[in-house]
């Protein structure tokens, strides 16, 4: 049963990551925490998310806002060490609670039509939050999703710029996790078993991305966030 659940989580999360640019970590991390220790769940998420970013980077280059990407990276450099400190100090219950609260607060702000005027400084701040969340809970997506949604970014720009940023942030975060938190064979064996499912998810996600409108894309986003946040909160309580 656990193997089936693991396969289902990876396949659905891979489809979402490819079609939306953020879905893998937001969906996979909370459910992987039900099957693995926090360190293992986060590192499996980082490895597979990095693989997806590598596979997609050539296809989404034209949609990348390089100026925004650079500011995200600069901001994340100071957020990454903060995140690993929080991870090393937190227990599993606190980790799940933190993830559920982050997701639900994000969703409420989006549903309330929260808007942010984009600026160079705010690009950097969004990168900082994303970096700190990546090394702490393995989820760089929420700050970027809120920021891009708040600025009414087109789905192509959102997906392209976030996937390019993930290529950097997941690689650096994985290195930091391995160095400061350690790793084990379970992480790498589970990631290896999941790679074929990720490949299937890549093809299905690309097909889905071409067929969904901007409005449906946004509604799909809210539904994923609400489901994941509420499920994890109930599990924690």
Unreliable residue runs: none
SSE string, helices as H and strands as E: HHHHHHHHHH
Number of domain units: 1
Strand content: under 5%
Can you summarize the main beta sheet?
none
Cα shape: globular
Count of alpha/pi helices? 10
Structural class, please?
mainly alpha
The end-to-end span amounts to: 23 Å
Q: What is the helix content? A: over 70%
Q: What is the gyration radius calculated from CA atoms?
A: 16 Å
Mean pLDDT score: 84
Extended strand count: 0
Structure at a glance:
InterPro entries: TM_pro_TauE-like, TSUP. By secondary structure, the chain is mainly alpha-helical.
Task: Name its key features.
237 residues, transport, 0% strand, single chain, mainly alpha, 10 helices, TSUP, globular, transmembrane
Can you characterise this structure?
Keywords: Cell membrane, Membrane, Transmembrane, Transmembrane helix, Transport. Belongs to the 4-toluene sulfonate uptake permease (TSUP) (TC 2.A.102) family. It holds the Pfam family TauE. It is found in: Cell membrane. It is a multi-pass membrane protein. With 237 residues, the chain is mainly α. It has one domain. The protein is built from ten helices and no strands. The protein has helices at 2-20, 23-32, 38-56, 66-89, 92-111, 120-137, 141-150, 155-181, 185-211, 214-236. α2 packs parallel to α10. It is globular. It starts with a helix and ends with a helix. The mean pLDDT is 84.
Record the SSE blueprint.
Blueprint: H1 2-20, H2 23-32, H3 38-56, H4 66-89, H5 92-111, H6 120-137, H7 141-150, H8 155-181, H9 185-211, H10 214-236
């Amino acid at each position: 049963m656990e193997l089936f659940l693991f396969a289902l989580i990876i396949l659905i999360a891979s489809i979402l990551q490819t079609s939306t640019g953020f879905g893998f970590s937001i969906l996979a991390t909370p459910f992987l925490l039900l099957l693995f220790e926090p360190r293992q769940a986060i590192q499996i998420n980082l490895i597979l998310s990095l693989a997806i970013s590598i596979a997609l980077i050539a296809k989404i280059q034209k949609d990348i806002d390089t100026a925004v990407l650079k500011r995200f990276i600069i901001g994340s450099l100071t957020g990454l060490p903060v995140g690993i400190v929080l991870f090393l100090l937190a227990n599993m219950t606190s980790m799940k609670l933190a993830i559920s609260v982050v997701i639900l607060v994000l969703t409420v702000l989006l549903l309330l039509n929260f808007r942010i005027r984009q600026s160079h400084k705010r690009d950097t701040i969004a990168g900082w939050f994303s970096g700190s969340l990546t090394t702490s809970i393995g989820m760089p997506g929420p700050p970027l999703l809120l920021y891009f949604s708040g600025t009414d970014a087109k789905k192509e720009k959102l997906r392209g710029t976030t996937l390019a940023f993930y290529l950097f942030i997941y690689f650096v975060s994985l290195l930091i996790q391995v160095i400061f938190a350690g790793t084990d064979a379970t992480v790498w064996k589970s990631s290896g078993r999941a790679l074929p499912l990720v490949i299937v998810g890549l093809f299905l996600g690309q097909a889905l991305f071409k067929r969904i409108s901007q409005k449906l894309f946004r509604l799909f986003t809210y539904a994923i966030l609400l489901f994941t946040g509420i499920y994890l909160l109930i599990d924690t309580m």
